[in-house]
Amino acid sequence: MIRRADYAPPAFLIDSVALEFDLAPERTAVRNTMRVRRNPDAAAAPALALMGEQLEFVRASIDGRVHADVRVNENELTIDNIPDSFELTIESLCNPAANTTLSGLYVSSGNFFTQCEAEGFRRITYFLDRPDVMATYTVTLRADKSAYPVLLSNGNLVEQGDLPDGRHFAKWEDPFKKPSYLFALVAGKLVVLEERITAGSGKEKLLQVWVEPQDLDKTRHAMDSLIHSIRWDERRFGLELDLDRFMIVAVSDFNMGAMENKGLNIFNTKYVLANPETATDTDFSNIEAVVGHEYFHNWTGNRVTCRDWFQLSLKEGLTVFRDQEFSADMAAGDTPGAASDAARATKRIEDVRVLRQMQFAEDAGPMAHPVRPESYVEINNFYTMTVYEKGSEVVRMYQTLFGRDGFRRGMDLYFQRHDGQAVTCDDFRHAMADANGRDLAQFERWYSQAGTPRVGVRTSYDAAAKRYTMTLTQGYGEASEAARATQQGPLLIPVSVGLIGAKGADLPLRLDGEKEPQGTTRVLELTGREQSFTFVDVAEEPLPSLLRNFSAPVIVEYDYTNPQLAFLLANDSDPFNRWEAGQRLATRELLALAGRAAKGEALSLDDEVVAAFARVLDDETLSPAFRELALMLPSESYLAEQMSVSDPAAVHAARVFVSGRLAAGLRQKWLAAYEANRTPGGYRPTPEDAGKRGLKNLALAYLSQFDDPADAVRLARAQYDSADNMTDRSAALSALLMAGASAKGDATAADAALEDFYRRFENEPLVIDKWFALQATQRGGPNRNVIDIVRRLMQHPAFTLKNPNRARSLIFSFCSGNPAQFHAADGSGYAFWAQQVIALDALNPQVAARLARGLELWRRFTPDLREKMHEALTDVASKVKSRDVREIVEKALA
Fold first, then answer.
1. Which part of the chain is the Peptidase M1 membrane alanine aminopeptidase domain (predicted)?
2. Class of the domain covering 454-551
């Protein structure tokens, strides 16, 4: 167990690193020459201890002479009898071809790649592999020229040339100090799309996107996204690209989405490659966001980095916030107005949906931890939704409290103080506080307390005095034991509110003691366990609009009636709360139906729910993208988490019933929406066109859930056959699979389309990932057992467990994305899960640990399911060897 409280500065510092690689798949030689000195700010140490894993030590030299006082074990190299300042050279060997963990130096498709975050550099060479040891790097790569014509590393290319025996070399220098986790090298047969731009300072910059030759035609969108990211960071934060060259490289074998190595970002192909035939609207959007995210790390993560891994959200939470703001601004365009505001709000809703479905669940389970964890066994397990998504919400609260200008002042002061340093979350908080003249000591609890806060709301209206009082309380409700252990006191919670009159208009807001009204949305700062806020001159009893724009990552508890929720859905000026009202209405009805389904009672749907959906569907003043989100039912996983005892079968029955009822009751409206939202002409991945396609394909999905889905099958077949883009083609295939599972459905059309889809795209790995995922997440039926289909697909020639994308597309999609089938009453899903966790643990512990989290909430399920989950967890605990998976299952079982 590693604890934040035990942090101590490194006993030694490394000022410069010169790395020389002789690259060979099974035996790569690494010569590492470092300038080392004792740290005057740390306790003295008698020896230098360097981390190293899966390395073969050759020799060590100090100041040019072989040094014999060296001890080597499995995870460390210790050097005794050393001076205070010296040049240390270590020679070692590694085997990249055998490295299935994809951490350190490894081989993919015959090319060399690295992944060093968090602790992969120690698999490349012996080193002080911790983020607070920052050095400048010079890297020389040597390799066979015909096999590896491209040799890349961080920084600027300073020399290259040919060597004897058909080999060549390239020498790179990175002028900026960086921690070892930001090191990268790439070598192989790659081609490049490049473009030169002029930065705001007038300096020319070379931008490159490197891919395998067959993928060059799929790089334009990534390049455009990079250019947009650079321009946005200059405009919004005054931050300019600091290198002469910036490179993106795509690799198909990658544990993460991408990595922000200084100047040489290595990406999963999923977040680089796109053209209309192979990528969906979601893919185009995700590429823009991830390219932006990794580029923004150049400042928030690279120029200013983490002191230790407990501060991970310092870079990740902040950079997620930045990429969310970037994506929202890109969707909104340059012209302010209602359409721009709607596009920005749609992005906000999408981000909150992810947070509430995934991070809130994490907060409720045994892996609950603060944004800044206090301890860990394996740091890879803490690349979590809490660190990233809740961390971004914590950063967003600074902007909510201080506004855009105040947030920018805080960012400017942060860089002024800490450029080139490894710092902490507290350093960021202090910069925000000092730049805005505020005491944010209480705000620190957002970093140190786990769990999802609950804000209770009580209201009262004095008609005679025209005073409306809102009383807010805060607490954590029935938080998990892991969360309760961290809680210290009340938080500073910004609660953004509005008041809506009987005619649906916002009322002006004047708090008691103020001279004039100040707008129609106000941010109330809740700092105590209970606080009251009184608005004056309120001419009529209003309906409160609470937590506008989701101003804090909390759960609001206010007992709206169904008619009030329908009113908010129709009238709230805050788009997020308009969407939220519809989700609350649907969730309330679905949970009630699930309760009846669990008892075997007959199901019926309140006509007001159908009418509320109809009003949204008919309201053409709302953007198609917003209507799509508002008309989506809450997911089965989210609904199950809202139950005191999760019953996936009951939730599935309720959701299928409601979907069918909405499909039947609004059939003509769905058909009309389908026709009205076609996008004639060539494919464009614009927010406007993507919104129309989204609403059209949602209509098709509802139609496919009608008892007699003949219309849906007809439309889906025609759409599949005529589609000129992957969004429409994959949506049509999904609809055919859904229609095949309905009461009067026939899977013949779906099976034919699946066969055709594979034949069309068998040479496009990312598209075949979609083919696997669609089958793993299909609804299935009495004669279509999805787990049997998944098991058969694991034997397919295109499937391999070694590729993380392929494993995620089939195994993760089934276990995480198909709760009704995964949680089968016979426990077959859990047995399958255990088999795959154990198999992956032997290949790639990081990926295995992600899958292992699928059962961490096992105690919340029905007794029969709970017992079978416990058996599966116990089986995994007895067989896995990695600390990655052991930490997960031991916490789940504790």
1. 222-446
2. mainly beta
- Alpha-carbon distance of 635 to 357, in angstroms, equals 8
Nearest to 321 by CA among 420, 224, 428, 226: 428
Residues classed as catalytic: 294
pLDDT, residue 528, reads 98
CA-nearest of 531, 451, 458 to 494 is: 531
* Cα distances (Å, whole numbers) of residue 64 to 13, 77, 139, 326: 19, 19, 19, 50
CB of 398 within 8 A of CB of 413? Answer: no
CATH superfamily assigned to domain 17-34+47-273: tricorn interacting facor f3 domain (2.60.40.1730)
Mean pLDDT of the chain: 97
Q: Determine if residue 49 is left, alpha or beta; phi over 0 gives left, psi from -120 to 50 gives alpha, anything else beta.
A: beta
**Residues 569, 575: Cα–Cα separation, whole Å:** 9
What are the tens digits of pLDDT across the range 25-40? 999 999 999 999 999 9
What residue spans in the chain does CATH classification 2.60.40.1730 cover? 17-34+47-273
- Interatomic CA distance for residues 82 and 34, integer angstroms: 14
Please say whether the beta carbons of 71 and 111 come within 8 A: no
Average pLDDT for residues 875-891, to the nearest whole number? 98
When the candidates are 1.10.390.10, 3.40.50.720, 1.20.1730.10, 2.40.10.340, the CATH number that belongs to 305-447 is 1.10.390.10
Is residue 221 within 8 Å of 269, Cβ to Cβ? no
Superfamily of domain 766-894: Peptidase M1, alanyl aminopeptidase, C-terminal domain (1.25.50.10)
Assess contact for 177 and 98: CB atoms under 8 A: no
Q: Which residues are registered as beta bridge partners of 115?
A: 104
Entry pTM: 0.98
User: Listing from the earlier edge strand, what are the strands of the sheet with 70-72?
Assistant: 48-51, 76-79, 70-72
Between CA 545 and CA 37 the distance in angstroms is: 59
Alpha-carbon distance 638 to 590, whole Å?
A: 11
pLDDT band, very low/low/confident/very high, at 745 (cuts 50, 70, 90): confident
Give span(s): CATH 2.60.40.1840, the chain: 454-551
State the sign of the Cα–Cα–Cα–Cα dihedral 632, 637, 641, 644: positive
Q: Is the pLDDT of residue 526 over 90?
A: yes
Pairwise CA distance, residues 308 & 6, whole Å: 11
